[in-house]
Task: inverse folding
C-alpha cells in the first residue's frame, strides 16, 4: 500500500467544507482549473488616469476659487470701511471734532484696534481724508479709503470706495 492521499481523498477534503489550500491567501481557481493570484490594487495606468482627472478638475476650479477669495476680501473691505466711517462719525458726535489720527479712535475706546486693509494686508496703508477749515487748516480725519491702487471685480479702484 502506498502512503499518502489518493486523488479521491483530495476531492473529498475540498468538497467537505474545508478551505482548499491557498484560498485564504487570495489565490483562486481560474476557469481552466489552474490556481493563480487574485489582482491586488491598481495598475499604473489607472492611477495616471485618476491623477489626470483630478488635475483637470483643479485647473477648472482655480479661477472660481480666486474669484471667491477676491470677493471675500472686497466684502471685508466694505465692512471695514463702513465700521471706520461710522466710528469717525460717532467720535465727531461725542467730541465735536474729528480725530487727528486713527489711533485716537483706539485710545478713546471707539474700536479695539485699527483693522488691516484686506487688500494690502496692513493697518498702515489706509488713506486718510482730512477736512480743512476756511483758513486751510486740517481739522482731523473725515474719511478713510483703501490704500490699494488695484482694481475691484466691478472695475472700480479700491481707493475710490
Result:
Amino acid at each position: 500500500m502506498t502512503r499518502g492521499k489518493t486523488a479521491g481523498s483530495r476531492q473529498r477534503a475540498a468538497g467537505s467544507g474545508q478551505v482548499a489550500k491557498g484560498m485564504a491567501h487570495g489565490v483562486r481557481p481560474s476557469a481552466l482549473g489552474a490556481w493563480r493570484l487574485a489582482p491586488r490594487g491598481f495598475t499604473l495606468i489607472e492611477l495616471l488616469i485618476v491623477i489626470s482627472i483630478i488635475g483637470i478638475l483643479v485647473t477648472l476650479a482655480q479661477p472660481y476659487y480666486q474669484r471667491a477669495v477676491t470677493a471675500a476680501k472686497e466684502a471685508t473691505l466694505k465692512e471695514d470701511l463702513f465700521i471706520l466711517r461710522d466710528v469717525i462719525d460717532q467720535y465727531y458726535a461725542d467730541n465735536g471734532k474729528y480725530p487727528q489720527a486713527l489711533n485716537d479712535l483706539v485710545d478713546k475706546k471707539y474700536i479695539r484696534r485699527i483693522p488691516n486693509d484686506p487688500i494690502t494686508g496692513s493697518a498702515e496703508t489706509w488713506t486718510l481724508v482730512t477736512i480743512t477749515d476756511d483758513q486751510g487748516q486740517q481739522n482731523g480725519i473725515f474719511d478713510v479709503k483703501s490704500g490699494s491702487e488695484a482694481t475691484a471685480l466691478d472695475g472700480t479702484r479700491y481707493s475710490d470706495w
User: Anything to note?
Assistant: The chain is about 40% helix and 10% strand. The CA atoms of residues 60 and 161 lie 31 Å apart.
